[in-house]
Structure formats: structure tokens, C-alpha cells
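Lab notebook, page 48
Experiment: co-folding of the full assembly
Goal: obtain a model of how the components sit together before planning crosslinking
Operator: M.T.
Materials (sequences as entered):
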Amino acid sequence: MSLKIIQKSEILDFIHRLLPDYRVVGPVESNGGYAFEEISDPADLRLNYTTTILPPKKFLLPPQELLFKFDNTNGGHLQPGPEREPTVIFGVHTCDLHAIQLLDAVFTNGFADPNYLRQRQQTVLISVECLTPCDENSFCKSMGTLSADEGYDLHLTDLGDAYAVDIGSQKGEDLLLDYAASKDAAPEEVQRLNAVLSEKWPKFPYRLDFDVSDLPSLLSLSMKSPLWAELGERCLACAACTNVCPTCFCFDIKDEVEMDLKHGQRVRIWDSCQLDEFATVAGGHNFRKNKALRQRHRFLRKGKYILDAHQQLGCVGCGRCARACLVDITPVGVFNELYRQTQVEGKL
Amino acid sequence: MITVPNLTPVAEPLHVGEQIFQPEFGRIRTVEQVGPLEKLFTIELPGGKSLDHRPGQFLEVSILGVGEAPISISSSPSRSNGVFEMCVRKVGDVTSAIHRLQSGDKIGLRGPFGHGFPIEKFRGKDMLFAPGGLGLAPLRSLINQVLDERALFGRVILLYGAKTPPELLFKDELREWAERSDIELHLSVDRGDETWTGNVGVITTLFKFITVNPRNTVAVTVGPPAMYRFVLMEFMGMGIPEGNIYLDLERRMKCGVGRCGHCQINNIYACQSGPVFSYKDIKGLEEAL
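Observation: model returned without errors.
Model output:
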């Protein structure tokens, strides 16, 4: 689609104009780092942020989400959850954009999820091109998520004093037209964009020792690897890795009752395959009874199972799980070690 | 190397609770104690709606304020008459709350979920059923469907084991089946008591009493997780082909629609690609058994 230019000085006005009509969300400074938060003062937005602890997923699949309220006084009357707010998410990195595309597939395939879709359909994604690596834990280039051709409504690239704006959807075009002062890109601005994009590429290292297209077969071959037992020894089963993951979507469903014991609500809350009871069935049998099996399941999901089901890898290389892990279990470390083992055994 | 079974998730519509997470309410018609911890609930759907289930499918059953649990359907579609049955063992919060319900009470329902047994593939075959304990509850749906179409099947063999004589479920039906000449019924208990004169031992000790034509037999087992490997060995030992062996792999499904992750067996979701599987399809999945 056509390329637009928006001056950096215009971004504040853009957000000011959005605020009456949209919940605006974006990266802001928080506890010495950054977090996606609802923005009330546009000056708080930091589009040149590095990374966040939690991905923007939390606005689409909240940690706790109301499914419905119930009233047991009249024999089980249900009241659906509240309408979702129109939301603009600013500053989504391309790794997270790939993750949201995966969530879209997950929550649309088969029985579409009305709760997710109600929020998703009212959400505008404004992504931003990463020009330098977040830190040593990100491995987006290896995972093929260092750029995105689709999935955004508007995509911003920093050209110095202005952003190049790529329009990715009608929704994005309308938003830009209605709320922002932009102009068509001049040929020299298109040239500048191309220069910025080609200059950024060498700044990002490949961190996997093999091509990511080999990852699914590498994991299939590694079901019996001794590495899983080693990870199981180290893992604390704290579930930080899955809590910060932009593609993890497993959940539990629970009822909460008010003090009158008549009214209450059913909620969906994030759950984790790393927790002890996750695969326990009636009678007490646990199908993933130790941490080694649970770590294996996590990595198999990321690199193979989700790909089998949705034609997209379940890991986008954001590095959040590596930053969150207290015992230094990292996807790059795990994948490279499995690769080394298969090389030694002459398998792959 | 793990294999990816070519299993198709279900695409059939839900008949109750189309909004996925919002249950609809059925009404309990009768409650019958069928085991020490097991009650059989007969339930009718609102507006005379039909559940239209297949044997082997399950429902998410809700008690508002307590929660939801996946429960298999115990009645045969051939005997629906506007109602269906669920056999519930009192083991947790939700099942205890279900046990407190009485005739006339409302009960939240979503489903039916999952693939049922492919009964159309079974017609013309000899049927060998080997449920253990509460496994008879889901299998009873298929057994009664087969009995209602008795002429379309060859032999019907039922090997049923429970821990103790009181824990044998559906005793009235067992007695009825024992009297029929077209059902070969063999019962066993792990530990007998003063009333018990039958076989004592785990369910696999019943296999010595039967012989089958393996090429024309469909074998089905449902039971506690520890049982499957041993029953499978018996089936395989008889020469029954892997593709003719069926298992019902029940997990603690929270959503029923292939997302919550609790029922995942390696790369597949039991609630969508199962819970009924042929052994051939899942033998490469080490988390299956």
C-alpha cells in the first residue's frame, strides 16, 4: 500500500485526537524498563523502547477475563461480559506482531472464540520497525520475525525527524486519515526508508547455529535428549517463561463467588503447562509428572506442535522467557544444544 | 522421532452452549445411585432439544459458583427419548456439587465435544469391550447402541473389571446382559468379598476365558490411566490389528474447543481429535498412555 510520512512532532497530536474515541495503549517507562500501559498523557509514549516484560497480548487475552456473570437467585441467569473498548495499541514490535497473528489463528480456527475476537476486532495495531536489537536475549532475526509484511494496520519506521507510515489495512488508513496529519512520502523519503531498512539488518546477529526451518525436525529428533532431564533439574516450575510469552495462550476457567454466595462470575485466567497440576486428570494421574517432561512440552509446542497446527512457529524470538527465567533456561541455549547433540550423533 | 497422526479435529456444531463458554441449563429428571461414589443423572435439555451426541462424546458440566468439569455421556443416542444420562463419580468440588443435585434441579451444560466412536466402521464386526471401573460409564453409550442394533454386529464380548464387587457399576444392566445369550459377559474384581463367587484379579485375568477372530474384531477399552498398557498388550497378543483397537483417552478438559491446553497429548488436543482414538493413530504419542 501507499507510504505516508508523519512528523514526530505530530505523534502527540495524533494520540490526543485518538484519546476521546479509543483506549490508547503503548510502551511507557516503568520500573527502570518499559511496559505496555494505557496512555493518558501522550508524552509518556516511548516508541524507541527496547522490550517489555509482558507483551501486548495482555490487552487481547487478559491475565484474567470475565466470561460471564451469574445470578443463582433465579436459577442460573447469565449475563455476558462487558462490551470491549475500541483500542489502539501503539509501538508493537514485529516479533509481537507475529505473535498476535498466531493468536488470531489460534482463536479463529475451529470454534471461534467470541471473547478474543470481540476485543481483537476493535483493536488497531500500530507497529514499529526495530532498528537496533533489544538486548542479547532477542533472536528475532533467527526466527524470521525481524520484519513483518502484514498483520499491522499501520507500521512506523523511524526516519530521524519523521516516521514512514506503511498502511496495512483499511482500518489503518481510516485511522490515519481521521486522526493524524500525514502526507504522501516523497521519492527521497522512500529512498531514506530503504536506506534505514538495509542499514538495520547487519546490526542484528543470528543467534541460532542452524536454519530455523530445521527446528521442527530437530525437536522431533530430540524427544529422548538428555537435555530435558537437565532442564528439569534446574527448572523451578515458576511458570515465568509462559507468563511472559507473547504466544502462550493456555488457560484455566474458574468460578468466583461473591459473599452472598448467589452472585458471581466465571473467569478465564492464564494457566501454564509448567505448573505441576496442569496435566493431572481425575484420579490424580499426572501425564507430565516431572519438570523435564513439562520443559520438553513447552519447547516442542514452540518449535513444532504449534507449527503443525497453525503453520506458524510458536516462538517469535522476543527473548522474554530468557530474561524472565531465574535459572537461565533460554530458547537459544536449548535449541543450539539440541542441534549440537544431533550433530554429534550425526542425525540432522 | 515423533509421528504426527493424521487426525481431524471435530467440526460438528455444539448442541448446547453455542457461545462456547456460556452453558445452557438442562433439568435433572431422575437421580440413581449406581455405585458407592457414582450417581446416574437423567437430564432433559431446554425446549425439548435433542443432544444429538455420538457414543464417546462428552459435555462440560457446570455448577455456577463451583465450576465446570468434563463428563462423558453414558446413554446411547438410540435411547435418547429427549433425555440423556451421565454417570458422575464424586471425586472433586464440581462432582460433589453435582451429587447434591436432585430431581428438578437445573444443571449447566456445554457440548457435546469431541469425536465419538466411529460406529459405522464397527458394523459387521465382533465387538470386544474391556472397560475398567468408571470406564463403563462412557462405554455403556456405545454398548447399548450396539445392542440396539444387535443384528448388525457379530459377537458382543464384555470384559468388565472393578476394584471390589460394590464398585461394579450398572448392576441391573449387568444382570440383564448376563442373562442374554447374545452377550458374552465376564466380570472380575481385584479384591473379592464374602458375596463374590466370580473371577478375582485385574481385568487382564479375564482374557484367558475368551478367544476371538482377530481379523474381524474391534476391541475397545476405557479405564483408569494405569490400565491401558496392560489391556492393549492383551488385545495385541490376540492379534487384533492396531487400527481396530480403540481407546477413550479422557483428560481434564477445561474448554472443550482445543485451546486451554489441559488435554494436550503431545501435539494433539484430546477434546478435538479425540477423546476416542484408534491405537494406530496414537501409538507414536508417548504422552497418550
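Interpretation: Residues 3-203 of chain A form one domain.
Next step: discuss with group before ordering constructs.
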